[in-house]
Amino acid sequence: MKAIALEQYGSSDDLRLMDLPDPKVAPGEVLVRVKAAGVNPVDWKLAAGYLDPIMEVRFPLISGWDVAGVVERAGFDAGEFAVGDEVFGYVRKDWAQNGAYAELVSAPVRTLARKPAALTWEQAAGAPLAGLTAYQSIKRVGLGKGETVLIHAAAGGVGSLGVQIAVAFGARVIGTASERNHGFLRELGAEPVAYGDGLADRVRELAPDGVDAALDFVGDGAVDVSQQLLKERERVASITDGEAAAKGGHYVWVRPDAADLAALADLADAGRLTVRVEHTLPLAEAAQAWRLSQAGHTRGKIVLTV
């Protein structure tokens, strides 16, 4: 099969289009013919060796954990899916090697759900990691109907999905973003505020009694600001602040979860969740996709088509 891979830790300059063996399909796994693969910052961070202290990585390394495609073959005891099923998923295994930047990927059934019919292949490939991150963060703070949630970096890949999920939960959403993204947030159903100095005061103008929950998708002191505004200090979840738990909140590292993926698919098919795809590139241009991701100016998702 064709795949984008690295022979050792490196950068976008080291990515190569290679001919590699088709992946083996273990019990409880299916072989997926990839239609599209989502690009996430963790892809190039993993390739640079940043996760080496905590994750087993084997080479040649095929990057990518987000996938949308068609089941081509099922392994033993993988009856959840049949050949021809359209699926999407966050295919993270116990070690990193055979990722989604390829024509084929073997995926444990626990990492997959049926692709929502309402989303294109590209949108479905952009949904799993970001969508699960947002969904699991929202569950972690126990967000309920009628509550007010503050979402930091609400216009980003994770934040924009978090806004839509929170709105679908019946919550009021206040979202931080630059001025140029305020219209976008209003379209999603959020009340935008500018980030930066004076953020707490601007949020209090909208929510004088404080907020019920907060989601930090940006870092840079967002947990501390949130706890100035929260009615209960522990109801903040962060994906960037490793000290969030020590501060009394929650640190969230997204997990593959078939039930959570299915919940996202249901929201999409109900018209409550969509994915903005900012850039679509062919597999061979993965290096350019990483450069776009590293620039940090993309509002929606970056997706590779296979």
Automatic annotation (TrEMBL):
Organism: Streptomyces monashensis
Protein name: Alcohol dehydrogenase
Domain Enoyl reductase (ER): 10-304
MF terms (GO), sorted A to Z: oxidoreductase activity
PANTHER family: ALCOHOL DEHYDROGENASE RELATED, RETICULON-4-INTERACTING PROTEIN 1, MITOCHONDRIAL
